Amino acid sequence: MLDLFYTDHFVLPLPEGHRFPIGKYRLLREELARDNRFRFHPAPAAGPEIAAMAHDAGYVRAFQEGTLGAAAMRKIGFPWSNELVERTLASVGGTLSATEAARRSGFGGTLAGGTHHAFRGEGAGYCVFNDIVVALTLARAQGWARRFAVIDLDVHQGDGTASMCAGDESVLTVSVHGRNNFPFRKQQSVFDVELDDGAADEEFLDGVGQALARAGAFGADLVFYQSGVDALASDRLGKLSVTPQGMAARDRMVFEWVRRRGVPVVVTMGGGYSDPIALTVAAHVMTYRTAADVLDA
Q: Span 217-246, mean pLDDT?
């Protein structure tokens, strides 16, 4: 069985009409619970001191205390609340727990996380803390992993991850994303594949193949897979034309690549904003079920 950590027991008090699909997290867990190949665990909160291993301590403290300025919160995209603090720390904690599960068994998944737009000293794009960078920082400090590959297949570039890991030769950041999509000021990953608007399955999967080839040459001993599904043609924020079948093929490529190399993998969710949201949930479900098909056979 595969271990999954969830955060949907925290509900954000968002204003009516807010476009962040907070409901998808609960729907995803409920659908995956129909499958007996998963064990579900509520994500524990990460301590702010753990977040500060990768982030500026003053930023962590200001967010926790609710003293970030209005402009900083607008850039994040959420109104500040105690519930936001709790869920954010649980989201990081879920990725930390999934990383520990990957150390033990080869796989760990979180039904949250992938908050790749968070920089060292600021958040953006619904991302407060960069859970992936926090997790790899802690794994390195614990001494059980030394080389890390972050395979980011969300339609939006993992700009915060690229910035936070820039110059660190022990971390390979690869990103396959829309050229003309958010963030409009891109950072430089170690390896970027930029897709034009309307790119469909063939171009998308070719980019994934390039990313995996680059990661294979790096030789990581721990992989983080940011598995956002906002490249779907149905996604309101995606601008690409990838089909559900293309997304499923993407996931199979990643997990078969992981299996061949015998490297532990941590799966984080990332984005998805389809209308109706059921299309996003179905794609996220497929990611985790494909992991079970390939890695838990």
A: 97
pTM value is 0.97
Catalytic one of 55, 116, 117, 284? 117
Phi then psi dihedrals of residue 274, to 5 deg: -70, 155
Domains annotated on the chain, with CATH? 2-295 (3.40.800.20)
Q: Which helix (H) or strand (E) holds 152?
A: strand 148-152
Region class of 219: left (phi > 0), else alpha (psi between -120 and 50), else beta: left
pLDDT of residue 22 exceeding 80: yes
Q: Express each pLDDT in 161-184 by its tens digit.
A: 999 999 999 999 999 999 999 999
Q: Is there a contact between 57 and 51 (Cβ–Cβ < 8 Å)?
A: no
Q: Could you confirm whether 156 is annotated as catalytic?
A: no
Q: Among 109, 114, 92, 107, which Cα is nearest to 265's?
A: 107
Average pLDDT over residues 32-61: 97
Q: Taking all residues of the chain, what is their mean pLDDT, rounded to a whole number?
A: 97
The pLDDT value recorded for residue 11 is: 85
Residue 155 DSSP symbol: S
